[in-house]
Design a protein that fits this description.
Structural class: mainly alpha
Keywords: Coiled coil, Metal-binding, Zinc, Zinc-finger
Protein name: TraR/DksA family transcriptional regulator
InterPro entries: DksA-like_N, Znf_DskA_TraR, Znf_DskA_TraR_CS
Order of helices and strands: HHHH
Pfam families: DksA-like_N, zf-dskA_traR
Oligomer: single chain
GO molecular function: zinc ion binding
Number of strands: 0
C-alpha cells in the first residue's frame, strides 16, 4: 500500500468521524428549552458552545472533502498555489493541506 492510499483511507475515516460528530452536535442543539430564566440562559450558553464546535467540525470536514476530491482528480500531490509538488512528509503530517511548505509560510506570514 502506498503512502497516498494510506492517506486516502485516513481521510475517509476522518470524514466519517466528522460527519458523525456533526450529526451528534446537530441533535444536541435541538433540545427543548426550559421555562426557568436562569436555565434558559445556561441553555443559550451551551448552544453557543455547540454551535462553535459545529462550525469547527464543519470547517475540518470541508478540508477533508477537498483533499479527497484532489486525490480523485489527481491534484493531491501538487500545491494549489504554485503547482510544485508537496513533500510527502508534509502530506503525512497534514493530510488535508493543499499548500507546499513554502507557500504555506509565505501566505501565513
Amino acid at each position: 500500500m502506498t503512502l497516498y492510499e494510506d492517506i486516502k483511507r485516513q481521510l475517509q475515516a476522518k470524514q466519517m468521524e466528522l460527519e458523525q460528530r456533526l450529526s451528534r452536535l446537530k441533535r444536541d442543539a435541538v433540545k427543548p428549552t426550559s421555562r426557568d430564566w436562569s436555565e434558559q440562559a445556561q441553555e443559550r450558553e451551551n448552544d453557543e458552545v455547540v454551535d462553535a464546535l459545529g462550525n469547527e467540525t464543519l470547517s475540518e470536514l470541508i478540508k477533508v472533502q477537498r483533499a479527497l476530491t484532489r486525490i480523485d482528480n489527481e491534484e493531491y500531490l501538487f500545491c494549489s498555489h504554485c503547482g510544485q509538488e508537496i513533500a510527502p512528509a508534509r502530506l503525512k503530517v497534514m493530510p488535508y493541506t493543499d499548500l507546499c511548505i513554502q507557500c504555506a509560510e509565505q501566505l501565513s506570514g
